[in-house]
Amino acid sequence: MTKGVAGIGKTVSVQKFILDWTDGVANQNVDFMFPLPFRELNLIRSDQYSLHRLLLDFHPELKELNIEEYKDCQVVFIFDGLDESRLNLDFEQKMKCCDAKQTSSVDVLITSLIQGSLLPSALIWMTSRPAAASQVPGDYVDQVTEVRGFNDPQKDEYFKKRVCDESLSNRIISHIKASRSLYIMCHIPVFCWIAATVLQQMLKKRNIKNIPKTLTEMFIHFLLIQTARRDEKYQSGKKTYQEELLQSQKEIILKLAELAFKNLESGNLMFYEEDLSQCDIDVSEASVYSGLCTEIFKEECVFQQKKVYCFVHLSIQEFLAALFAFHSFVTGNVAALKSLLSEEHRDDSNPSFLSSLQSALGLRSEDHLHVLLKSAVDVALKSQNGHLDLFLRFLMGISLERNQGLLKGLLTQTQSSSRSIKETSQYIKTLNTEDLSPDRCINLFHCMFEMDDQSMHREIQKYMSSPERSKQQLSPAHCSALAHMLLMSEEVLDEFDLKSYNTSDEGRRRLLPAVRGFRTARLAGCNFTAKSCEIVAAVLQSPNSLTEMDLSDNDLGDSGVQLLSKGLSSPHCHLQTLRLAGCNFTDKSCQIVAAVLQSPNSLTEMDLSDNDLGDSGVELLSEGLSSPHCKMQKLRLSGCLISEKGCTFLAAALTSNPSHLKELELSYNHPGESGLKLLSARLEDPHCKLETLKYVHFFRLSQNKYTQISVRTLLFLTKRQHVEQNYD
């Protein structure tokens, strides 16, 4: 699974991967590579398909291929754009397809391929925006990668290659660097392309005053530039004022915006002629528009040579959809906005919705916008795959009065919005988002920035520079903002101590993704549960800098370590030290940890103390310690209910794999004299690397009482000094 935000380059990565294969540069062990984009799979309207027939529809040249050859060849299926899927991918249904000739619905074919019941030897690659990636259960994902976009030098390199005029490219880079928000957004290649188009035009005309500073402003100026280009090619080319330009092409722009909105709701990203007709777009008009404005709308031929239409990039469809929603609001076209209104604000029977709403809720006219924005937030957050997240950002941005001014000619009137913006920002800050992923929470922070509310950013900057920041309470919203700022840092930081941030459990959950940019994550005693392990695992499955993590004293349980193991098994995980003391593990957890140790890993130090592992747990753990993949040098098992039997398993593991473990702690267990002798014998073995065996135990003073801290025996065995006893 490859994750990445909109426009970051996931599809380009897929195209490069395929090109390298066809050119003989890479992956020459692969016999067949089948790209099956979800946006094209969505177009299939037949109920029943076999895998072979599906592949023939996409690649007719396969008709001479014997179906059995699929089984004997190395096949790669590439499903690009999981977030764009309209298929019902149900991984819990019992219906599965196990034969390439067997017919079933397309969604069953796809889930069967992913689950491995169909062509189990096939390799599967999926791409997705982060919010939608969870549609595929982690059990079916072996590896997660992330497209991070451009780093700072690559941003500069892009603009220098995109703009041939060196002086102009340097000015563009200077202007973008002057706006921290724009510079951060330029890690997204699509945004770089749009920014280069806009700034090249504006700086040529010396229009420095109105340089865009937000995502919405940049897209509005992009629309203005494309409208001007269309006017030059197709109309008189004499219109010079923005308002006049937009007014002259208002009809086609709003038709495209309606197409964008209606189909974004239903998840359609490619359109047939009948979809265009529903928005009164003539097919010939669409062809003309796509031919003259290829940077907004385009005509394509997909499988079976069907002619379809789509927006050049999903983000452009999302922008135009937001434009249609706001235009409908301003013009009172409430019926079009029905899907954006939360249930409490819907009234299907009353045509004069706004008047009724005003009367019922005691709203003034300027408060109507807040109702729309608040409802849009609620509806967007209910989306399982986050398909309305970017749309929401654009809608918030367009609602700003200065952006409404840029769209004069399309908007016949503007809406006073300052009060509504303030109320919507406040609403976002107070939202209960416990069921949302941290990525979705960060999108809400972006929405506030589009509304020109930088209060969170300023508060976080003030907080970070405060010498008494540990005393200041951080709200969950502040934590989302802080996580975003930390994730945007180009520098790898040393230590992230979650308890040093004065916030709630929900705030800590939102901060968790930020640990990927640190070398050490101190997460002990943070009231984490198994659910928190999903986020930690996601961090470890993505590119990160972590080498040390402490999750001690959290009630993770066996289910938590099961989730965590997915991250520990990832090729992106480079943890060397992992502390899991006091996490309420049982012997079941040892089986999971052993599986991690038996696969390639970087772990050299682990603390499993104060968990009720018992001898059965140690037996399972010893299987991992015996593995040649295990590089463990320090292992702490203090207070784990280990007896002489458990020591037998540990001694056997040290015999099987003697080359790594140097330090073993068994304090507060019951190994008995024979158990300690078994292990201390390993100290004498010249082939065994064990140098230190540590055992501390409290003496019983009477039948029912133990000393709390006083009388104890310390057995500290090394190859230099065998026995040392201390009495406190």
Automatic annotation (TrEMBL):
Record-linked InterPro entries: Leu-rich_rpt, LRR_dom_sf, NACHT_NTPase, NLR, NLRP_HD2, NOD1/2_WH, P-loop_NTPase
Pfam families for the chain: LRR_6, NACHT, NLRC4_HD2, WHD_NOD2
Residue ranges of domain NACHT in the record: 1-132
Subcellular location: Cytoplasm
Protein name per the record: NACHT domain-containing protein
Species classification: Eukaryota, Metazoa, Chordata, Craniata, Vertebrata
GO molecular function, one term: ATP binding
Chief localization: cytoplasm
Record keywords, A-Z: ATP-binding, Cytoplasm, Leucine-rich repeat, Nucleotide-binding, Repeat
Gene3D superfamilies recorded: P-loop containing nucleotide triphosphate hydrolases, Ribonuclease Inhibitor
Keyword ATP-binding: yes
SUPFAM superfamilies named in the record: RNI-like
PROSITE patterns given in the database record: NACHT (PS50837)
Source superkingdom: Eukaryota
Recorded GO CC terms: cytoplasm
